[in-house]
Amino acid sequence: MTARAASATGRRNRWALSFADLALLLLGFFVLLQASNGRQREVVNGVAQQFGAPAAQMDRLAAHSLFQPGEALLTPAGEQAIAQVASRYKAGKQSIEIRSIGLDAATNRFDNWDLAAARLGATARALAAHGIARERILIRGLDQQSESKAGQQILIRAK
Fold this sequence. Notes:
This protein is α+β, with helices and mostly antiparallel strands and 159 residues long. Helix content is 50%, strand content 15%.
């Protein structure tokens, strides 16, 4: 085989190297999604933003800083935090999605589902009281993850 023929064969097979690189990147991405432990949506949004997708506005609030321990009653600091979040979302017309993520170890009279639902309701009422139309507020699922180290969190984002 001449040097010219070997060179032509090498160029024809370059696609295999590019294909292998793409396959490894996809494998790495799916491993990252699996390892993200229930935060797949955040990972996908982050990747989408890197490729030029518009950034979704999102606030993640720790429930222990908003509510009394084991209760669905907002503290004064929690009311203030909700008011600040509401002022950021008030101008838009898109829907506001509220989610509960994780569990609260300090539950007293509620089980974890009831506490998460009651806290989501209290957050929705507080957002409505601070000027966000009730039609815009969507209360979504209770993502109860027992391995959440940060405790229960309330996720508020524009949709």
